[in-house]
Amino acid sequence: MMFGGHRGMTQDAAQVTDVGKALRRLLQYFLPFRKLLAAAVAMIVVSTLLRLAAPYLTGVAVDQFLAPGEQPRPVWLEWLLPEDVRRETGLTVTMLLLLATYLLNWGSTAAQFYLVILAGQRVLFRMRTQIFERIQALSLSFFDQWEAGDLMSRLVNDTQVIEQVFSGGIVRLASMGLSLIGIVVSMLSLNWRLALASFSVLPIMVLATSAVSRRAREAFRRSRQTIGEVSAELQENIAAVREVQAFAREQASVGEFEVVNAMNRDANVQAESIISAFSPTLDVLSTIALAIVVGYGGYLSLAFDPPLASVGIIVSFLLYVQRFYEPIRGIATLYTQLQSAVAGAERVFELLDTEDEITDAPQATVMPLIRGRVEFDRVTFGYNGRAEDLVLRDIDLTVEPGQMVALVGPTGVGKTTLVSLLLRLYDVDQGSISIDGYDVRHVTRESLRRQVGVVLQDTFLFSGTVMDNIRYGRLEASDEEVLAAARLANADQFITRLPEGYQTELGEQGHTLSQGQRQLIAIARAVLSDPRILILDEATSNVDTRTERLIQRALDDLLKGRTSFVIAHRLSTIQDADQVIVLEKERIVERGTHEELLTAGGLYADLYNSQFRRE
Ligand SMILES: Nc1ncnc2c1ncn2[C@@H]1O[C@H](COP(=O)(O)OP(=O)(O)O)[C@@H](O)[C@H]1O
Ligand SMILES: [Mg+2]
Fold first, then answer.
1. Per-residue pLDDT tens digits for 126-136
2. What is the pTM assigned to this prediction?
3. Sign of the Cα pseudo-torsion (363, 369, 374, 380, in order)
4. Which ligand 1 atom is the nearest neighbour of the CA of 414?
5. How far is the CA of 539 from the centre of ligand 1 (A)?
6. 458-530: what fold?
7. For the segment 461-507, what is each residue's pLDDT rounded down to a tens digit?
8. What residue segments make up the domains of the chain, in order of their start?
9. Is 417 in the pocket of ligand 1 (CB under 6 A)?
10. CA distance 99 to 94
11. Domain 16-191+327-353 is found in CATH 1.20.1560.10
C-alpha cells in the first residue's frame, strides 16, 4: 500500500522524519509572496518595538515628572519638550505617547496578521490545487475505493493543520520570539545589574514550561492515538458491515468502542490536569521575579550614592518582568503546533510525490488545444505486465470530437482501467492511444490532463467555502465565472439555499453536503475547467434516482460539444450515447448505438432488459 496503514497516519509530531526538509519545501511555496512576507516581518518588528516602549515610557514618566531625581533626561525627551516644562505637562505628554504606541501597536498587529493570512491563503490554495489534481488522478487508479476515501479524509485534516499555522501561528511565533529577545535586551541596556538578577527565574520558567508542555503533549498524543483507534475501529466495522453484513460482531464492537473511548477520556483529563496544575507554579515564579526586582532594585537604589537604580527603572522592570512568561508559553505551544503542521505537510508532499512511475518523455511536447478525437489502436494492458493477467486486449476504438461513448461491462472488467490509460496514469503494454493524432506518451502529462475533465463516484471536498471548492476547476476563474458554472451545473439552486450561500464553509467543522450535492459541485468544477474530453466514471452511482435526474440534466449541458467517456451502472442514463462499448473478458464484445444493440439481442440487450424489469 502506498501510504501506510490506517493507523499509520496519525498527526503525531513524533512522526516527522526531517523537519528541516519539509519546512524548506513549505517555505518555497511562499517565495512568490516574499514582498508580502517582508512587509509582514517589518510590521512584526515595528509592533514588537512599540510593545517594548510601554514599560520604558512608564519608567521615564516616573523618573522625570512623577518623582524626579538625579536621572539625566533622555535625548528624545530633551528634543521633544523644553528644559523647564511643567511636571504635569511632561506627564501628560509621555502618557499621550504611551497611548500612541498602544494604538500603533494595535494597527501594526492587525496589518501583520492580515498580510500573513493573505499569503498563507494563497499558498494553501496552490497546494490544494496540486493535491486536488493528484487526487483526481489517483482516485482513478485506486482500485480500492475505501483506501482512497480514507486518504482523502486525512488530507482534509492535514491541510487544515497547515492552514492554522500559516494563518497566524507563524506570526505569533515570530513576534513572541522577538518580544522575548527585545525584553532581555531592553532590560540589559536599562540596568544590567538588575537585569541579570531578574533573569535568574528565566531558566526555571523555561525548564518548567518545556517539561510541562512535553508531558501535556504526551497526554494529548495518547488521546489522539486513542481517537485514531476509535475511528479505525469504526471504519473497519462499517466496512465489514457493508460487505459481509457481520451483525454478530455488533455487541463486541460496542464493548471495544467503550473501552477505547474511556481511554481517550482519561488521557484528555490527564492532559488538562497537567496544564491546570502548572499555572499556580507559574504564579509563584512570577511573584518571585517581582520580589527580586523590588528587593534588589530597592537595595541598588538605597544602598549606593549615587543610587545604582532609579524608581522609574524599577517600575519599568516590574512591567517587563510581568511580560516574560507570555512569550515563553506562547513559543512552547506554537512550536508543538508547528511540528504537527510540518508533519501534515510531509504527508501532503508524500502524496504529491507519488506517481513517479510514469514520467514525461524527454522530448515531450505540450499538447495544443485539442478538438477531442480519441483513438485506441490495438491497446493491450495489464497491471503487472504479465501476459496471463491482462486487463485489456487488442482494444480498437475511435471516438470523433463531441461524441459520447458509453462503457458497459461487469465490475472489474476494465472500464476504469481503459479511461486511466487515456489519462496516461499507466502506459499501454502494446498498441497506442492518441488524441487528435498526438500519442499520449509524446505529450506532457500536464497538458494532457488539463484538457481532460474527470467526475468520479466520490467527490472530494476541501474545507473552505463552496465558492473555493468550485474554483478548483480553474484557479484563475472570477467569482462571476464560478457562479455561471454553478448555474450551468444545476448546483445554483441548492447552493443559494445553504445558510451562507456560496460563502458557506464546507468540511469537518462546516456544512456537510449530500452525495448528490457533492456531485453537482464536481460537475460545476468540470464546467469551469471547460475540458475538451470528459470522463464520468460512475458519477451518479451513489445518488438516488431523483437526484440522478437533476445531475443528468446538468450533464447533458456539460457533455454538449465535448468528447465524453461515460461509465454508468444504470443503463437508462446512457441511451443517447453515440457508441455503446460492451467489454467482456478483456475485449470489446459488442459495439453500436443503444437501439442497434437492443435489436442485436446480445449481452447488452440482456443486461438492459434485466435492469429494466427490476426498475
Ligand atoms: N491499480 C491497480 N492495480 C492492480 N490491479 C488493478 C488496479 N486497478 C484495477 N485493477 C484490476 O484490474 C481489473 C479491472 O479493474 P477496473 O478497470 O477498475 O474495472 P471496472 O472499472 O470495469 O470495474 C480488475 O481485475 C481489478 O482488480
Ligand atoms: Mg470502475
1. 777 777 777 66
2. 0.62
3. positive
4. 17
5. 17
6. Rossmann fold (3.40.50)
7. 776 789 988 988 887 789 999 999 999 888 998 999 998 999 998 86
8. 16-191+327-353, 194-308, 458-530
9. yes
10. 9
11. yes
